[in-house]
Each structure stands twice: as structure tokens, then as C-alpha cells.
Amino acid sequence: MLKNKKIGFIGGGNMAEAIIKGMISSSLVKVSNVFVSEPNKNRQTFLSSEYKIKIVKNNLDLVKKSDVLIIAVKPQIIREVLNGIADQVDAQKLVISVAAGVPISQIEEALRVGKKKKLCVVRTMPNTPSVVQEGATAITAAKGVSKSDFKISHEIFQAVGQTVEVPEEQIDAVTGLSGSGPAYIFMIIEALTDAGVKMGLSRDVATELTVQTVLGSALLVRETGTSPGELKNRVTSPGGTTIAGLHALEKGSLRATLMNAVEKATLRSKELAE
User: Fold this and answer.
1) N or C end of the chain: which has fewer CB within 10 A?
2) What is the pLDDT of residues 170-196, one digit of tens each?
3) What single DSSP character describes residue 184?
4) How many other C-beta atoms are found inside a 10 Å radius of the C-beta of residue 148?
5) Which domains does the chain carry?
6) Whole-structure pTM value
7) Facing residues of 9 across strands?
8) Alpha carbon separation from 147 to 21, 94, 111, 233 (Å, rounded)
9) CB atoms < 10 A from the CB of 112, how many?
10) Which residues does residue 68 pair with via DSSP β-bridges, in sequence order?
């Protein structure tokens, strides 16, 4: 479905690069059909040489060339960027935003600039593991987006991991869980590594063991389809080492702390969108 589509990226930062890399490495698109508009000359040079894609001098030229527009700029400047291309965008162009905290209504308003016209807008919330093609992306679409365009949106982000469909009112919860979630996991990895060092392991060994344990545990949940609770029980022998460690985690309110973190991040996401 994407093979003959022309994909234009406004913004060539890390997330845009991750998507470009994923699409090209999976042969989802032709390299000749990928365009980027990016103001930083060093990034222009890097993206062009690394992925052999075309750099377009300005956003308007990019919009004219593209069937699908991926808006990968900072939320603080998205309105200005969208206002600048509004005259060239209509319902024939699929607009996909990766800007955190910017609702579909604001995207549509910025693209309409006071005019009544139909648009095709999709909002996404990817996360940083997309950089290694192991991302989690939530996708929500405006009314009127066709099934084929929605499928295209999923195909693009499945090139960098897994996708889920959610109503837009749940995007803030997605931000609190999977959007901010990598930072929680990094902190857990860091803490477990420090614990290994405290118990006498070298930092290199502690890091390797921790990372593989987290990775292997996640894969075990995904590949077996078994609940985390059941897998935890299988590791926990009566009177053994694991139950002693779990007791310490319960005393430290690990579950409640993680739940509070997701709640706080979700509420903050809502505040930023207001």
C-alpha cells in the first residue's frame, strides 16, 4: 500500500530518522519516494548520506511532492509550521503528527487558518525505543480518515515496532505509560545494576545481567502470552530467594510508586495540552 506513496518528513530529528530507517530497512517504501525538510545543515548531510533520501529546501516544496506528510517537529513550533503549509494541504494528503501533547483539533485549526476544508489528520504517540525498531506507538485518527489511510499510518509505525489504536481521549494515558515509560525502565535498570555492584559484581557484569534480564523477561511475556503475575509465580519458590526479594519490593511500594508515576505523567500531559 505504501510502495508507491511519496512520504515527506517535516523535521529530520531522531524520531523522523527512526521511522525513515525502519521503512527503508523493511522495504516498505522506495528510497526515491522519501523526502525530508530539515533546517539543520549537519542533519541534512547526515540523512542524505546515511539513507540516500532527498533533502527538500523548504516545507512548501516538500508538501507539493508528498502524498503522506509526517510532522516531526517540536510541539512549540508546530502551529507555525502548519500555518506555513496550510494552503497546500487538503484531504488528498494524509497528515500524521508525532508531536506530543498537540490534539487533532489544534492541528486541523492550524491547517485550516479560518477556511472550511476537509482534512485527513492522524495523531500518534510513539516512544524512544522506536530508534531500535522496538517502539510502541498509539494511533488515533480524526473523523473522516479513511480505513486505507488509517492502515497506512499503522504500516508506517509498525516499521519501528508495534502499534495500537486508541481514542484520542486516551492519548494522555498512553503518554504517561509508554511515552514516558522508557524512563521508568531505565531507572529500574540503573537501580538493579547498582544493586549488583553493591553485592560485589563488577559494573560491566551487573549491567549485562540486568539488561538481559529485563529484555528476556519482556520477551517471555510477549512470546508466551502468559500473564506477568503467573510468570512471577513460576520463579517464586516457597521460602526461597525470590519471595524474599519480592517482599522487599512490596514493603517499598514498588507497584504503587509505578502506578503513581503513570498517573502523574498522564495528568501532566493533560496540563500541557490545555
Assistant:
1) C
2) 999 999 999 999 999 999 999 999 999
3) H
4) 9
5) 7-171 (3.40.50.720), 179-273 (1.10.3730.10)
6) 0.92
7) 36, 70
8) 25, 12, 22, 42
9) 16
10) 7, 94
Three cell numbers written together for 40: 539543520
Give 212-248 pLDDT, tens digit per residue.
Answer: 999 999 999 999 999 999 999 999 999 999 999 999 9
Give dist(CA 211, CA 218) in Å, integer.
11
Lookup: cell for 38: 530539515
By three-state DSSP, how is residue 138 classified? strand
User: For the chain, what percentages of helix, strand and coil (3-state, to nearest 5) are there?
Assistant: 60, 15, 25
For residue 74, give the amino acid letter. K
59-64 long-range Cβ contacts below 8 angstroms, 24+ apart:
59/10, 59/84, 59/85, 60/84, 60/85, 60/88, 61/37, 62/8, 62/9, 62/10, 62/35, 62/36, 62/37, 63/8, 63/88, 63/89, 63/93, 64/88
Are the CB atoms for 100 and 270 separated by under 8 Å? no
Q: Whole-number mean pLDDT of the chain?
A: 95
Q: Which three cell numbers stand for residue 189?
A: 535498570
